[in-house]
Amino acid sequence: MTPMKLLGHAQFHGANRLADKTSRWIWAPALLILLGSAITLVMMTVKRYQDNPTYMVQIDSVFSVKKFPAVVLCPEIKFVEEKMDDFVAKVQYPPGMNSTKIREILPQLAAFYSLDVPYVLTDLLQIEHLLDYNGLTVETAGEILTATCEETMLREMLEHGRDIEGTQQQHHQYTKWFGYTSGLMLAVNQSQKLTVVDISYKWVATLPSQYYVDISMNGTALNPGSEHWIAFYSKGYQIGVGAKSLRPTLRKCYMSSDKLRYFPMYGKEFCTLEEEMANTLSKCKCVRVNHPIPPGTSVCRAAMLQCSAQALIAIDSGSTACPMACDFEKTYVIASNYKLDDSVRTVEPFYKGLNFEKVSVVRVFIQRRKRPTLERWSYFDYLDLFSQIGGMFSVFFGCSILTLLGLLQLAWHVIVKQCQRRRN
């Protein structure tokens, strides 16, 4: 059978017209135009699938019992004066070094923990030499000089809370009470003399339970002589089965169960922190004190502080390739504060005996029972994409998979004919 006769039997619209000499000059351009249109629509469909294959649907849920957030209370970056006096009195000094000079420059040691602390490199090198002489590390010295939890937090009270224990690794605090009349109350010691605002304030932050605490993060600053109300609420993110089956590059998120190199779960913050650590290790051959310390690595010393500061990566910057997690809980807080007044008689016994001028009261509570959840759904999966592409070619040409077999047979006969002509 000749190729023209095969073309006449091809199972797509207009194929028999191409085999007819009188009409092929009309049908050939028309079929080429339709072919171009079909290919254009297919390319547009595939591009849409690759660029934005999912959409978000909001679902509101009401909880009778909610998990209470983790409350992080961070002492001021500035070291306690009495602790610094005690430190310089107890350490041993190498030749050519005295306690007067060390006491003067010792506050600069906090530069290892915060970029807000000004320092002189030669002074930090002297402090490092003193720590090495006494067999101390920067982390150890920082713990000695920083206020402890007992010194920072004078009093706490949990109202209407109930403890629910799971496994030994899962220990959460749950509450069925919502609003400002319930939650956690803290009395924070503010007797330390305030100097530079950026390093002498305490702050509080709320996070989901069992969350890695990055000490370089920030929170709500606590002013002495005031009461701070921290209203906590959250928004959930989930993913549907269809969207979950897509590749992470298509759905533009990773599952929280995906393990990272240094963290047992995925999160945008964790991924960014790992990139920051890798960037610091690559440029400076060390990691900062507030980084998790991978095995075989060392903490950046004074000479590399400037290098490590330049290697930092902002969580919200476009310089990181870390997408959001598909299933996680994003937290929000609404903070307000009120001045504590000694002349006002307090009803709650929690305030009894507190010096309002040297204390901050923190009240953390869950704002509402309702939690919106954004669920990621897919427009279509791989099978739907295949069906749409097949439908387009069917509309334009009446094609099917069997049609492709017929076209392959036609191409095979043409190739065989060409080979026979060359031999002859």
Q: What is the strand tally?
A: 13
Q: Tally the helices: what do you get?
A: 15
Return the string of H and E elements: HHHEEEHHHHHEEEEHEEEHHHHEEEHH
Q: Which structural class do you get from the secondary structure elements? A: alpha+beta
Uncertain regions: pLDDT < 50 for 5+ in a row?
Answer: 161-169
Largest sheet: 7 strands, mixed
Distance N to C terminus: 19 Å
Shape: elongated
Mean of all residue-level pLDDT scores: 80
Estimate the helix proportion, in percent.
25-40%
Please give the radius of gyration in angstroms: 34 Å
Q: Regarding quaternary structure, how should these chains be classified?
A: single chain
Beta content:
15-25%
Membrane topology: Multi-pass membrane protein
Family: Belongs to the amiloride-sensitive sodium channel (TC 1.A.6) family.
Keywords: Ion channel, Ion transport, Membrane, Sodium, Sodium channel, Sodium transport, Transmembrane, Transmembrane helix, Transport
Subcellular location: Membrane
